[in-house]
Amino acid sequence: MPELPEVESTRRGIEREATGLRIQQLRIYDHRLRWPVDPQMPALVAGQRIVAVERRAKYLLLRLERGTLIVHLGMSGSLRVLDAATPRLKHDQFDLLLDSGMAAVATMALRFNDPRRFGSLHFTGEDPGRHPLLRALAPEPLESKFDAEYLHRVTRGRRAAIKQVLMNGRLVTGVGNIYASEALFRARISPRRGARRLSRTDCVRLVRSVRAALNAAIRAGGTTLRDYVGTDGNPGYFRQRLYIYERAGKPCRVCRTVVRRIRQGQRSTYYCPSCQV
Ligand SMILES: [Zn+2]
To answer: Ligand 1 centroid to 241 CA: how many Å?
Structure first.
């Protein structure tokens, strides 16, 4: 599943490749995404330039001259920048055909592939921050609102394990399973510890570790979208060097203790029983 770093890398790639280009046509191949795609949308966006590419949580915002396209990659989606003539693959759901405004034919396509169709595409002519999908989102882990003070406050009285609290999208948005494990390892905090038992110092360390884990992944994914696809044609979510995730049974990279895997809320958690308390 694309997590926040993949979405941010995608944003950077699209920003680099597509800012300033004009949408010649939005071509929808399958309207049945997570929510049906509005059939009016192609007429609303045709001819508009992409003026900026932003992100809110795991939503990509393509700011147009008049309005904003809101894209979510869902469970299995990817957006790639391709030559417009590239043949379609199975599960390609829509194309934004782009040109510089000088030529009659589209030169590039921003192509959305999504086998499971949990992704989504919306358009709004209003402030996107007030769109129903975006208006109630919790603070972002890379923004200043998510600080030790905030984490300390929202964990008071919470019996749930800190790993689960970190993944609670109502408290902080976009920390998925991989980065919750990685951040807790970096902060040397056991994923099983009750959230309310975090001290202020723990919160300082954890906030710093969440940011460090996400930023390391974003840096590792800093290739162009053209490189984003594996040689098999499938979108390869980049695999950066992870400290703890999926290392069950292997020695901890810090102390050589065997890494453990447990289940928390149906998800696998990886941790080192000696480094993390
Ligand atoms: Zn260790």
So the answer is: 16
pLDDT band at 239 (very low <50, low <70, confident <90, very high): low
- 210 CA → ligand 1 middle, Å: 18
Calculate the CA dihedral of residues 149, 152, 156, 162 and round it to 10 degrees. 150
Looking up tokens 């019996």 gives 159
pLDDT, tens digit (0-9, with 9 covering 90-100), for 3-46: 888 888 889 889 988 999 999 999 999 889 999 999 999 999 99
Distance CA 165, CA 121 (A): 29
CA–CA separation, 266 and 261 (whole Å) = 12
What is the per-residue pLDDT across 57-108, written as a single tens digit (0 to 9) for each?
999 999 999 999 999 998 888 898 888 889 999 999 999 999 987 766 778 9
pTM of the model as a whole: 0.83
CB atoms within 10 A of CB 48: 17
| Residue 260 Cα to ligand 1 middle (Å) | 10
Which residues are within 8 A (CB) of 46 and not within 5 positions of it... i.e. 6 or more apart? 23, 24, 25, 26
Long-range pairs, 30-38, Cβ under 8 A, ≥24: 30/93, 30/94, 30/117, 32/117, 33/74, 33/93, 33/114, 33/117, 33/118, 33/119, 33/120, 33/121, 34/72, 34/74, 34/117, 34/118, 34/119, 34/120, 35/120, 35/122, 37/94, 37/121, 38/122, 38/123
